[in-house]
């Protein structure tokens, strides 16, 4: 147990009066509460902490009673599973009673509440996620997680197969946490277990699968994790569209993000791994139950005409006006990243990269112009109400687009034939 390690100097949030007060309240009269999981891990890693969770020996109803008696507001978010959300001076803190698994089916567990910190740690997934911290910042390590953090090593707690059979989502979490916090090769036993049990992923809901994939694809560089997912046969199970397409372009995309200051974009990274085939992207969106916005973005990207590096800005502007600018930006970023990856050894790719860079800069700064005419303008110019108005308006808009959006209202009205 690594009692000498502390997060006190690395976690400014630890000093928040609301959190400290809550820990004191839940630790009175023979009970104990500790900060648990990701907040401790990230503090040790020097990473940002978004959520603070607390583990406690108090039973859920007692947690509520004590918190409310101390002036906190509580929400029974998962009280049947031991979790109560306590609002501490604006910060929502999930407080969960110590648990031990009674029965698992690969998706969810039946638990009993307990007071054994070792048992609570032992039911978690990875050693780096099973750390606790006391109110003064002292880290309580019951599974060797501090050493694994120091070595950037991701290990299941105990037997890897047993942990996975408790919840098959842990296969995807293994690669997600490796992408964020691992180095070198993944733990051999963990990797073998993921490969052996990958068929269990079929038991999971699509929402849980996509949520894990999205988080992994948001890592600074998910390329190594994706490589090992492919090696283990896991990637082809959850993302069969990548099987004959590949993940090699991820390296170039990550390099472009780093060099050009692009923010990590999980959906763009997904697009880099799958073919631009509208039908297959619709099937992917159905299978993973993507949001409407995600589905539309994939659809428009897959349906877009290929953009060549020698395309003129005028021609691109016409395409942007008629199509989806975001889809064009996605395509140009992927094409630019691919060309940059080849440019060191290929002069033609270097030239292409220059062309794509120029087009991308134009597309990112482009704003859709407003067509200066309306149907009422044509009626005022002498056209009779009816189909002719719509037909003329469409013809004039095409002429306006072909002019590079330069024809103004008067010039367009001068082209109206009233007959």
Write up what this structure looks like.
With 419 residues, the protein is of the alpha+beta class. It has four domains: 1-151, Beta Polymerase, domain 2 (2-Layer Sandwich), CATH 3.30.460.10; 156-238, cca-adding enzyme, domain 2 (Orthogonal Bundle), CATH 1.10.3090; 239-368; 375-413, no CATH class. 51% of the residues lie in helices and 11% in strands. It is built from 21 helices and nine strands. The strands form two sheets. The chain has a seven-stranded mixed beta sheet. Strand 6 (99-104) and strand 7 (109-113) form a beta hairpin. It is elongated, with a radius of gyration of 28 Å. 37% of the residues are buried. The mean pLDDT is 93.
Radius of gyration: 28 Å
Mean pLDDT: 93
**Distance between the ends:** 92 Å
Instruction: Note the run of SSEs as H and E.
Output: HEHEHEEEEEHEEHHHHHHHHHHHHHHHHH
Beta-strand residue fraction:
5-15%
CATH architecture descriptor name of the largest domain: 2-Layer Sandwich
Strand element count? 9
Summarize the topology:
Layout: H1 17-26, E1 33-36, H2 38-45, E2 52-56, H3 60-69, E3 73-78, E4 83-88, E5 91-97, E6 99-104, E7 109-113, H4 117-122, E8 131-133, E9 139-141, H5 145-150, H6 160-166, H7 169-181, H8 188-196, H9 206-217, H10 223-231, H11 235-238, H12 249-260, H13 266-273, H14 278-288, H15 292-303, H16 313-322, H17 325-343, H18 347-365, H19 375-380, H20 387-402, H21 409-413
Parallel strand pairs: 2-5
Antiparallel strand pairs: 1-2, 1-8, 3-4, 4-5, 6-7, 8-9
Helix pairs in contact: 7-9, 7-10, 9-13, 12-17, 14-15, 15-17, 17-18
